[in-house]
Amino acid sequence: MSRVPHSERVRIVELCLKSYTQREIAELTGRSTNTVTRIIQAYRQIQAYRRMGEFLTPLMIVALALPAPLKTKFWSPRLMLIRLALRSSMLNLQVFHLHGVP
Asked: Which domain of life is it from (predicted)?
């Protein structure tokens, strides 16, 4: 399995944004429909994380760095969910950037 070059990934996303179907994009680029689907899904996930990042409040950012409170020994369920969601989304975003996804 060969790695899809960055320029080809960009072209696949651009074609998707121009409303080509995934099957049409696969035919135009010579890639399998599974590869095209995977690249488009990764792009959409990154865009969702970027939009989510625009709404981070200072409290949410601090929640990423703080340990559990000493008095209660646990986080409130709501804060724990926010913390887990932010940590996993930041980790996924870093992984996508390492792989050169646009």
From this structure: Eukaryota
